[in-house]
Amino acid sequence: MNNYNTSKSRLKQKPKQVELLLLILYAIGFYTFCIRRSLHLSRDHFSKLYGLRGGWLFPPRLNDVSDAQWRNFRANLPILTLVFGVFTMLANICRKAFHFRARGMSILWLFLSLIYLSYLHGACIIFILLIASANFLLVKIFAHAKYFAFLLWFFNLVFLFCNRVYQGYSFSTFGQRWAYLDNFRGTFRWHICFNFVVLRMISFGYDYHWAHRESRFDQEKHIQRCHVCKSGKICYQILQERNVHINDFAFPTYLCYLVYAPLYIAGPIISFNAFASQLDMPQNQYSIIEVTWYGLRWVFSLSLMEVMTHLFYFNAFATSGSWKMLTPVDIFIIGYGVVNFMWLKFLLIWRYFRFWSLIAGIEAPENMPKCVNNCHNLESFWKSWHASFNKWIVRYMYIPLGGSQRKLLNIWVIFTFVALWHDLEWKLLSWAWLTCLFFVPEMLVKSAANAFQAEGALGGFVFRELSAAAGAITITCLMVANLVGYVIGPSGINWLISRFLSKEGLPVLGFMLMTFYVGTKLMFEISDAKQRMQ
To answer: 202, 210, 327, 406: most buried by Cβ count inside 10 Å?
Structure first.
């Protein structure tokens, strides 16, 4: 009888294995085609592209450094590595030699970070300190008021917008006696970095406001479900939700939190509670070996980026506008390449700074814990893209706005804020509102799917196929939203639609949806494999 059941189980598994093999073969064929076509496009059109420089990896091939953010980060890697190497070494030596806790470490890191900011922003550090001091006073004076949340948001949003509108202000605006300071504005625009400072000031304000209330966080229940806490370590969720002592909300700790050097430029974003806790007791989730392995993986990712930018000029096509002259299939390949380039760029930037923060004993949330090619719905995509920002939004916006009870309304407020936080540009607002527009049907379908109970093998098969088809549509929408927000702008929507709804473009659109359908089914297989391993 057992042999019969075993053979019957194997017969059921065989069609699934055949399907998985076909999916893998399709994926191999797709990527082979994309790589070959991308190489041809880069070779045939390089003379028309902007932002290409002499390469070092495959001479005489050029290197695509058309993205200003990546170009600046890559060029400054040696000096950044030297500075953070010295800073973290000094901080760790002082912690061990003088047994520094929260107060001592906050003063030490504040001193080191102000040196760092003085180089970055020069005399403009005055603006940062003045606004930060005003926010500290506002929080301390009005934290118990009923209208505190309104005051905190109003204050920070005013400065977020004014900083952008007035381009970081000019000292001459405050009188000619101060005009000479405009000659010492540093090497990096302070009002760009201040966007992250705004998030930290809001975090400090809310955490101080909530510190006077009884926490609703059920720590014991969390520990029972969290595999990190079960192992005897402390996870980030505990650090964030557990209120720190009221004495830790001191001005030196607050300033240190705002300008903490390893996370100052780009994050990842960390809450005040989590930061102050780890100043007192450094993180214990990552061992020295694990941090070293984390750094080696980053070096490998950097190597991948160098190979990509030497072989494929995706971003140069986008910034030069040359891809508008290409066929629909080539436009799809370049668009897909741009999304992957953006993902790898941000992964490298965020993980680099997080690596140095881990060495210093401060664990920040990991951005991009999942590959961009392993997300088949909008919710999982945004949870894993700028994951630390997502955690910040959930804690300080989504829940205070009413959480899941007002989810359909909340996403419009949240994504509008996210767009304006990035920059005051119409194309970013278009990206935000397009994302919300795509989010609404996904939430409605997900709600209906949760209520639907698939019965029998046929019901499960139909549900899985419909989910894969929905995933293909969602991935297409994600690509459109990101291309509108970061490449073509709202004026390019009509052009993009007309290209893919033309006689030449419709077969490509079908091929694109089929490819994303296959990709979604592979994501299901990966998810199932992970569940079996647990």
So the answer is: 202
CA 509 to each of CA 126, 316, 498: distance values in angstroms, whole numbers, following the listed order: 53, 24, 12
Query: What mean pLDDT value characterizes the chain?
Result: 89
Q: Where are the beta strands (DSSP E) in 426-517?
A: none
What pLDDT sits at residue 4? Answer: 47
pTM of the model: 0.92
DSSP assignment letter at 460:
H
- pLDDT tens digits, 3-30: 545 554 554 567 778 888 999 999 999 9
pLDDT-derived band of residue 169, with 50, 70 and 90 as boundaries?
very high
pLDDT at 479: 82
Residues 94-147 pLDDT 10s: 999 999 988 999 999 999 999 999 999 999 999 999 999 999 999 999 999 999
Are the beta carbons of 365 and 388 closer than 8 angstroms? yes
Report the alpha-carbon distance of residue 191 to residue 353 in Å, rounded: 19
Written as one string, the DSSP assignment of 111-167 is HHHHHHHHHHHGGGHHHHHHHHHHHHHHHHHHTTSTTHHHHHHHHHHHHHHHHHHTT
Q: What is the mean pLDDT of residues 193-215?
A: 93
**For helices 456-483 and 505-533, what crossing angle results, to 10°?**
120
| CB-based contacts of 249, cutoff 8 Å, min separation 6 | 204, 207, 208, 211, 272, 276
Mind giving me the DSSP string for 223-241?
Answer: HHH-HHHHTT---HHHHHH
Burial class of residue 376 (count of CB atoms within 10 Å of its CB; 0-12, 13-18, 19+):
buried
8 A C-beta contact, residue 271 and residue 203: yes
Helix locations, 47-101, DSSP H: 68-75, 77-98
Count of residues in the chain? 534
Give the HSE-up count for residue 470: Cα atoms under 13 Å, Cβ half-sphere: 18
Angle of the 68-75 helix axis to the 328-359 helix axis, nearest 10: 40
- Residue found under tokens 């929260």: 102
Nearest to 63 by CA among 306, 310, 303, 302: 310
CA distance linking residue 377 with residue 478, whole number of Å: 9
Sequence-distant (6+) residues with CB within 8 A of 132 are 197, 201, 254, 255, 258
Burial of residue 520 (CB within 10 Å: 0-12, 13-18, 19+) is: buried
Q: What residues does 52 pair with on adjacent strands?
A: 64
Residues 415 and 401 sit within 8 Å (Cβ to Cβ): no
**What span, in angstroms and rounded, lies between the C-alpha atoms of 198 and 162?**
12
Among 283, 344, 295, 355, CA closest to 315 = 344
